[in-house]
């Protein structure tokens, strides 16, 4: 059994085998467990802001610890048998490129959130300026989408700031992609994007009570002060977009973003025959994001569980072709889902390519891999692998959860799809 010692970051030196207890997007190294071979690696470790790391004497070239405080030994888990990892050099190229792609998506997401906050601040005092910001945001997203034959939707890390506009940005991204999946293009798709971006702007006028949103509004009594105040944001959002002199279709879509096909939505209790498809796209995506990101994170479900919930409890509330297209676009296991592969390993879905929605990219926990317990597998390049089932975090061993770090917040961004190679080691 290998034992590890928790040591101060200042005690780390060349020759030590260290284990990092941080997420796989936080550090620049190929794996979480490795031997220090240079002062450059030590400086990179110190640059992470860590106070301590775990050091494994039995795997190290260092005979003893330097002077300084060290904490008691703890037993490291025994590795289990697993498949052989991919060659390290090839894996490093793949993982470095993957990290760059994710961080690039995160930078764009953060910038869009910042621009959204600007339009929120200007929507009432300067609607013309807010219109310019809104149109530039949507047009930039459409330009990226139009250039891509297929699109890869990525799960972002929790290192991104908890921006106030993240819900509206998430909804905008998914609405544009769903509209595209349903064959929308040109001005109708642009109007959908604008409506998705601005659907909650009226909450600046009447901030709702904490914890209430469109999918749980019926838990408040009809006519109650909380519910009446919440439902007012739809009309306020419509009024603001009208003052922005946006196309009338934008306001019509926003007006329907809480209308359900079974007539139980609000504010007009419309039924399926009265609904526009764009309004239903926004309604479905808005509900999905609210379920993915509840204010009470202790009750959060995984994206796979939420899709199952939409089918089991909310199926009658959405137009069938819209719900079916959404599942086809996201895959049965959307990014952020926890899964078990058909070979028994556990993983976290990180990305879905619109061309291969049933073959996502997965961060797999493989404790037997010599270069570390995490592998990045792209199922479309691994035909022998498949997903056996989706899992709730409570069904996974603690050490697997600690390694995979399932998200408390589900945020997405996209990039142009590209070909993939064989499975790579992280």
Overview of the structural elements:
Residues 66-88 have a biased composition (Low complexity). Residues 142-342 form the HD-GYP domain. Residues 64-88 are annotated as: Disordered. This is HD-GYP domain-containing protein. By secondary structure, the chain is an alpha+beta fold. The chain has three domains: 3-75, no CATH class; 98-147 and 162-330, Hypothetical protein af1432; 338-425, no CATH class. The protein has eleven helices and 13 strands. The strands form two sheets. Strands 6, 7, 8, 9, 10, 11, 12 and 13 form an eight-stranded antiparallel sheet that branches. Helix 2 runs antiparallel to helix 3 (127-146), helix 3 crosses helix 5 (186-198) and helix 5 (186-198) packs across helix 7. The radius of gyration is 24 Å and the shape is elongated.
Record keyword descriptors for this entry.
alpha+beta; 3 domains; five-stranded antiparallel β-sheet; 11 helices; single chain; elongated; about 425 residues; Hypothetical protein af1432
Helix/strand-derived category reads: alpha+beta
Measured on Cα atoms, how large is the radius of gyration? 24 Å
Per the CATH scheme, the topology name of the largest domain is Hypothetical protein af1432
* Amino- and carboxy-terminal Cα gap: 24 Å
Task: Report the biggest beta sheet as strand number plus sense, adding barrel if it closes.
Answer: 8 strands, antiparallel
**How many DSSP helices?**
11
Number-wise, the strands total 13
Return the CATH class of the largest domain: Mainly Alpha
Q: Based on the structure given, which CATH architecture of the largest domain is correct?
A: Orthogonal Bundle
Element order: H for helix, E for strand: EEEHEEHHEHHHHHHHEEEEEHEE
Instruction: Give average pLDDT, whole number.
Output: 84
Q: Give the name of the CATH superfamily of the largest domain.
A: Hypothetical protein af1432
Low-confidence stretches: 67-93, 419-426
Q: Report the portion of residues in β strands.
A: 5-15%
Q: Name the overall outline.
A: elongated
Oligomer state of the chains in this structure: single chain
Helical content band: 25-40%
Number of domains: 3
